[in-house]
Design a protein that fits this description.
The chain has an 8-stranded antiparallel β-sheet. Strands 6, 7, 8, 9, 10 and 11 form a 6-stranded antiparallel β-sheet that branches. A 3-stranded parallel β-sheet has the order 3-5-4, with helices on one face. The protein has a domain of about 110 residues. The protein is built from 15 helices and 19 strands. With about 475 residues, the protein is α+β, with helices and mostly antiparallel strands. The radius of gyration is 22 Å and the shape is globular. Helix 4 crosses helix 14 and helix 9 runs antiparallel to helix 12.
């Protein structure tokens, strides 16, 4: 059986595939396939090698139960590993509750979302709010299949973002909160300082660097005690019809049909801004306001996390690199050229020249530091900013994007301590990736303790766990 991921850049060819109905069936499958490699997948909305499996593969979609209860003054949900975020939100909303943190899309399963550090803007990643992870694995001393619940210390920190490397996640206990409203509106500015100054008033905001126009569209957001706006339904229709579909259809037309760089530049300078209604202030439920239909059209993506003190330099570098990749400039500014020479990547930059024309806004989201071992926002007192670079090119025409993504990951990791998102294009070698995480050795220790035979690994995660750490 062959399966492909959402982005059509990964192919899974498991020798055995199961969709178990309950925990007992999972234990039976593990008992039956003792000694083989076993991996679980969610909805395959990942572009990285973390999803790959060529042995036993479990699809946990039938483990989707949701139970909400109170623990003191906290709301906690017990969620089956295969429950999609959109189903979880629906069930929580029945009790006037929601998640503490939400990503742009809701297609992923809860296990897949926490295993790769899914995040929104202005809060910690979803992983940070996990209170316990129930998983199936083999006992190291007896070899028997056992169920563990990791609920404290470094084992919990590892399980909060595990890349599927500790065992088969059965369920997740995650902190929730009462449903709340969010007010948002858009503005535009040319200065990053204006964007960052607005965080104090709009802590949930995210923003977009618009290519070829090189201005910032800011999606100002904050919690709001006011009731849902009278025009909230109209605003949702506007977002769905204009932003989620019309804007993306225009980008698809330019990239896949016209294939004209001139039309792309003209569109971002003059047409795309017309889609945006500025200063329309609307209040709606958080679970409606914080998400998009970003999965409506097939794409591929690399997302790089940089600490706050590196953000301004990283965005300047990204803008100049896009200009070089698109053939608009032949080299970088003096400061960035010196940076590239300092890390010995002059030839890499020369190879990138005129090979890729960027055609999508660069989304930037702030993520608060996580209490995890290896989520992208772990291990620092600073806030992190996730920079998303997305391509809507057809799979057969992605060579330029892959060249661009590789250059960006390798250069920005060395220059700005940038960490690639575990669930998206992740071009760095294993030793380069592990060097970005001060507590990766602790993560490796937990993995080797719970899964000493590497049963729940694939080739990519095995390379990570065997990599040398400086």
């Amino acid at each position: 059986m062959q399966r492909r991921n959402f982005g059509r850049n990964q192919v899974l060819k498991p020798s055995a595939f199961y969709t178990p109905a309950d925990e007992q069936e999972i234990l039976q499958i593990l008992d039956r396939h003792r000694g083989q490699r076993i991996r679980a997948v969610g909805r395959l909305h990942s572009w990285s090698d973390a999803v790959l499996s060529d042995d036993v593969l479990l699809d946990l979609r039938r483990l989707n139960a949701v139970q909400l209860h109170s623990e003191g003054d906290q709301l906690v949900a017990e969620v089956g590993a295969g429950c999609q975020i959109k189903r979880l939100l629906k069930e929580l909303n029945r009790h006037d509750a929601t998640l503490q943190s939400l990503g742009l899309i809701t297609e992923q399963t809860i296990a897949g979302a926490i295993s790769t550090g899914t995040h929104g803007s202005g809060r910690h990643s979803m992983s940070h709010y996990v209170e316990g992870v129930r998983l199936a694995r083999y006992d190291a001393s007896t070899g028997k299949v056992v169920i563990d619940e990791l609920s404290a210390g470094e084992p919990l920190q590892a399980a909060r973002c595990s890349l599927g490397s500790l065992g088969i996640i059965l369920s997740v206990r995650i902190r929730c909160r009462e449903q709340y409203n969010v007010k948002e509106h858009f503005t535009e500015t040319r200065r990053l300082s204006h964007v960052l100054d607005a965080e104090a008033s709009f802590p949930l905001q995210q923003f977009y660097l618009i290519p070829w126009r090189w201005s910032y569209f800011i999606q100002h957001r904050r919690e709001d005690d006011q009731p849902r706006s009278r025009l909230a339904r109209l605003y949702r229709i506007y977002w769905l019809g204009v932003m989620d579909y019309a804007l993306h259809l225009q980008i698809l037309l330019m990239e896949r049909v016209l294939r004209s760089r001139r039309s792309i530049r003209f569109s971002f300078r003059h047409i795309v801004p017309a889609f945006l209604i500025r200063n329309w202030k609307v209040t709606d439920r958080s679970s409606s306001m914080l998400v998009m239909k970003h999965e409506a059209f097939r794409h591929i993506e690399i997302e790089l996390f940089v600490p706050r003190d590196q953000l301004a330099d990283a965005l300047d570098f990204a803008q100049e690199t896009i200009e070089v990749a698109g053939g608009r400039q032949s080299t970088l500014s003096a400061d960035n050229q010196q940076r590239i020479e300092g890390i010995g990547m002059q030839e890499d930059l020369a190879r990138l020249h005129d090979q890729y024309f960027h055609h999508y806004p660069i989304c930037v989201r702030r993520v608060l530091p996580d209490d995890t071992l290896i989520s992208m926002a772990s291990g620092s007192g600073q806030d992190w900013y996730a920079l998303s670079f997305i391509s809507y090119a057809k799979p057969a025409r992605r060579a330029g994007f892959h060249l661009f993504a590789s250059f960006m990951a390798r250069s920005m990791s060395r220059l700005f301590h940038a960490r690639p998102h575990w669930g998206k294009i992740c071009p760095l070698e294993a030793d380069e990736l592990t060097a970005l995480y001060p507590r990766f050795d602790a993560f490796r220790t937990i993995c080797n303790t719970l899964d000493p035979q590497g049963v729940f690994q694939n080739d990519w995660t095995t390379a990570l766990l065997e990599a040398d750490i400086p």
